[in-house]
UniProtKB/TrEMBL annotation:
It comes from Chloropsis cyanopogon. This is NUP1A factor. CDD domains: Mrp_NBP35. Its main location: cytoplasm. GO terms for cellular component: cytosol; nucleus. PROSITE patterns: MRP. It is found in: Cytoplasm; Nucleus. Residues 10-181 form the AAA+ ATPase domain. HAMAP family: Mrp_NBP35 (MF_02040).
Amino acid sequence: ELRARLRAVRHTVLVLSGKGGVGKSTFSALLAHGLAADETKQVALLDIDICGPSIPKMMGLEGEQVHQSGSGWSPVYVEENLGVMSVGFLLSSPDDAVIWRGPKKNGLIKQFLRDVDWGEVDYLIVDTPPGTSDEHLSIVQYLSATHIDGAVIVTTPQEVSLQDVRKEINFCRKVKLPIIGVVENMSGFVCPKCKNESQIFPPTTGGAEKMCQNLSVSLLGKVPLDPQIGKSCDRGQSFLAEAPESPATLSYRNIIQRIQEYCEQHHLQEEKIM
């Protein structure tokens, strides 16, 4: 059933981090917006952060409900070519706590993959909770029935974050999940008035760049802090569209392009093998 449902998905990208609060959901939302800017591409964003579903708020879909059709659950659409699914759409209030044990979470993840009628999709982006446990094992196991292009791992520059991100890289290697690369989020802040750059989160051990060198992983890019990102997320708007000239937007666009290139290359290699 899973294989049949996901046969129409061309590329699958997981967004991971061992650390909470590094901006995984923000990155997932902006990656989806960036990919969907090409109107010829169909993009799906799946939020499997069961206990902290922030994607509905960030995508401007708070209060929306999931509808059942003959072919399964219909995603909630931001644009004609950008569909979203999240446990947030199943709660009666955004403030409801999801107090579930592992098996129930895993069951819902399986249901999202098996029962959501995405249709033909070029990119499926999966936003995950922090850590390396139940939800992560489930999504990798279920998607192994089809294919995963790889994982993008999000970190911030300080050692407290990198420590947990190294665990995530180790997790990917143990479960044979390809790593597309690492994104260093909140990488410095340029004052809009004086133009001086400050390191809000100092990279005391060399930041993501040094970690990537040590672990032989690609660094996809560094995204500087921009207060507008938080404002856009709170309003459910795309920061990329609202602040097209921001250094953070330019960084995001370069990262998105690198992810697209990786996925296309991965697809060609799979076709050769087949």
